[in-house]
TrEMBL record:
The keyword Ubl conjugation does not apply. Its cofactor is pyridoxal 5'-phosphate. Gene3D superfamilies: 3.40.50.1100. The keyword RNA-binding does not apply. Belongs to the ACC deaminase/D-cysteine desulfhydrase family. SUPFAM superfamilies: Tryptophan synthase beta subunit-like PLP-dependent enzymes (SSF53686). InterPro entries: ACCD_DCysDesulf (IPR027278), TrpB-like_PALP_sf (IPR036052). Keywords: Pyridoxal phosphate. This is 1-aminocyclopropane-1-carboxylate deaminase. GO terms for molecular function: D-cysteine desulfhydrase activity. The modification N6-(pyridoxal phosphate)lysine is found at K33. The active site is at S59.
């Protein structure tokens, strides 16, 4: 495991940003999912034989859990409502890679009641154990700030369940550092109301909640937006860094729309999930065939 993950200085749209390269933690186990599931990787969970979870058939969490199960020698059962016929016949991306890691996918059945030999993971890794790995991320950021004399830092990352952003802000506050480190995020799945609800389910004290930023227009998760593809291409051209196509483009669009945030030193946390680009990029190229 490549920890602490490197931090890279880049220039984007004539502004300096720092990127926390969590996509480089491990070739197969990276990004925010590696942070969320780190507890299960590092702790001795003797007696556990199986991990169970549920979600969509191209989920980043699904693939990361398949890697975790393989590393730990566990069976992995993953429950989905349906699989698209095209994906079933032309397996690729996270789905294909998870199957290659011996995932057993179960379609159209309810998740069974976990036993003492089973670990049950909420969709997207939204659970208390995620705090373990995210505390380590917070410590890496604080150490880097101290080494580089950055007294005030804004941290930005896009949110699905909001688990990483929440526990990161909480960890940074409870560290009691003299540094000022504020976490900003945006809702990629659902809206601000949904994201606030997710925060409250994990942490009732709102002083630990990150600040949610938005765009003027409503964003539908998984829909192909020309603006998302354009900023993804620009980021690759100007920084040389490949980002994921599901979360990061909206994240960067929101960040760039808020100069009151990025006018101060700003650290963007790479979400990993690049395997998902195998399915997303061809869809974007078909819909928006500009160079």
């Amino acid at each position: 495991m490549n920890l602490p993950s490197p931090i890279q200085s880049v220039t984007f749209e004539n502004k300096q940003f720092f990127i926390k390269r969590d996509d480089l933690i491990h070739p197969d186990f990276s990004g925010n999912k590696a942070r969320k599931f780190y507890y299960f990787l590092k702790n001795d969970l003797s007696g556990i034989e199986k991990v169970i979870s549920y979600g969509s058939s191209q989920s980043n969490a699904m693939y990361s859990l398949s890697v975790l199960a393989k590393m730990k020698g566990w069976k992995f059962e993953y429950y989905v409502d349906h699989i698209a016929e095209y994906l079933r016949e032309n397996s690729h991306g996270n789905y294909k890679a998870a199957l290659e890691n011996d995932m057993q996918m179960i379609v159209g059945r309810g998740v069974p009641t976990p036993t003492i030999e089973t670990i049950y993971i909420e969709e997207g890794g939204r659970q208390k154990e995620a705090e373990f790995g995210i505390k380590i991320l917070a410590q890496e950021i604080i150490d880097w700030q101290e080494e580089n004399g950055i007294g005030q830092l804004n941290v930005f990352l896009p949110s699905g369940t909001g688990t990483t952003a929440l526990f990161l802000q909480k960890s940074l506050i409870t560290h009691h550092s003299s540094l000022i480190t504020r976490v900003y995020t945006t809702a990629c799945v659902g809206d601000t109301t949904y994201l606030k609800k997710q925060f409250l389910e994990l942490e009732a004290n709102e002083k630990y909640h990150p600040q949610i930023l938005t765009l003027d227009k409503k964003h539908h998760f998984g829909k192909l937006y020309k603006e998302n593809y354009k900023i993804w291409l620009k980021l690759h051209q100007q920084t040389g860094v490949e980002f994921d196509l599901l979360y990061d483009p909206l994240g960067w669009r929101v960040l760039m729309a808020h100069p009151e945030v990025h006018s101060k030193p700003t650290l963007y946390i790479h979400q990993g999930g690049l395997l998902g680009n195998e399915s997303m990029l061809p869809r974007y190229k078909r819909k928006y065939p500009f160079p």
